[in-house]
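USER: Write out one fold?

ASSISTANT:
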Amino acid sequence: MKIALAVALVAAADFLFFGHGPGSTLGLFAMLMMAVLVVTVPAVLRKRRSVIALLAATAFALALIDQPGFLAFVLFGIAVTLSRLLVRRRFDNAAIWAGRLALQGLIGPFTPLIDLIRLARLGRGGARSRLVTIASAAILPLLGGAFFLALFAEANPVIADALGRVQLPDLGWLIVHGISWCFILAAVWPVLRPHPLVTRDLDIAPVEPLPMLSLSVLTLTLSLLTFNAVFALQNGLDILFLWSGAPLPGDITLADYAHRSAYTLIATALLAGVFVLVALRPGSTAARSGLVRRLVILWTAQNILLVASSILRTMDYVDAYGMTQLRLAALAWMGLVAVGLFLICWRLMFGLSARWLINANALAAALVLAVSSVVDYRATVAHWNVRHADIAGGSSFTDLCYLNQLDASALVPLIDLERRVENPKLRAQVRWLRDTALVRVIDRQNNWHSWTWRNQRRLRRALEMLGNPAIVSRPSALNRNCDGTIFRPPQPTAPAASAESEATGSALPPPVSDERPLTQGSAQ
């Protein structure tokens, strides 16, 4: 049954994806894969831990139906793999299961070949001998029949004409599809039949994530007092200048102060968290000291304030240079760092285990990734940049090239921007970008392979904002730069005058230009 349904999944994937960009069909395939898993491995529905993972996989499959994305696809693969593996082993330590998933990713693509070799070894007995007997019995009739049929084709035009109508499959088509089938089978089969090595009993006792530093209570106390004093200096300056906006001394501007690397401060906070992990363990002599515990709590609070200042620095940078996907992801990462620092302090205060700390951080990271797989960061970035655009600032108010890179996600923000822009030249640029994005979305939605729910909602909203036009005109065929400006190639230089013309004093007539001024009608 597993072999038959795996072949059916390969055929479905070939029908849905081959030669087409993925759309909501990717989520449909994810649903089919979960259905096959439930049919072939009924134990998935009998284990509560597997059901929870299967529900998570269903949520990511719905996210893929709404809009296919790499992150949602990866999270679906992790969730559906966990649902299968948790049938054999319970979830105990996120670090151990991360290793299992990594091992699954390394061994999984070779699982079909491994199982094929196993099958061949198992068939060395009676089954294999029967196959050899059948093959040896069939080879003579097949070869002899083909030989006599070829002779009759030479003697009988009816048989020759019938054989001439038979078309052999295109080898190029077969090779390309065969490679695609192998990739799909390598992704599907390990979920149905994971290698036993992935779920073997590791029997690893919970260990601390980092080695222990043997420091005395006095050393730790002096170190924490020093660290708190240094961090208080940095946080005090941030509160004075960054948060309150007080004037800076000398020639230092607020932009110079705010735009210094926020990532350096994040690295400082991470190093502080590592120090707490390696120097203080729940139940140790230093951890039982009341003064040390209070100093650690104070230092953790200062680190969280340091992360908050880094977020504020990044937001100041965004206000000056605009929002990007990388900067938005950096803000989410900074939030995770703050949560991690808080969890380290919480673990020390209540004497929790290292496994608890690992699982808590893994859960926080999983929640952030799950939200990120659903939220359209590209559309969020486009809306932010348009909403905070300085319309009176001319064409340099925002990065139109970056909006163009955001593709369909920038469609609605571009329509909103076109309404607000008053400069005719800038409005023509935005209109061309808007028309380009609109036509791309329409073309994708007209192909059922690449159709998505999110783009359908986006297209409906865009057409409503444009007044539901009966006909959508395609953008002009003129060469354009990424920001919508017209690309004008450099004019060829006039050829040098000949020696004879120079001697006679004559000169070549100036080249006649056929360039006409661009009007609104010609642009359309």
Notes: Residues 236 and 242 are 10 Å apart (CA to CA).
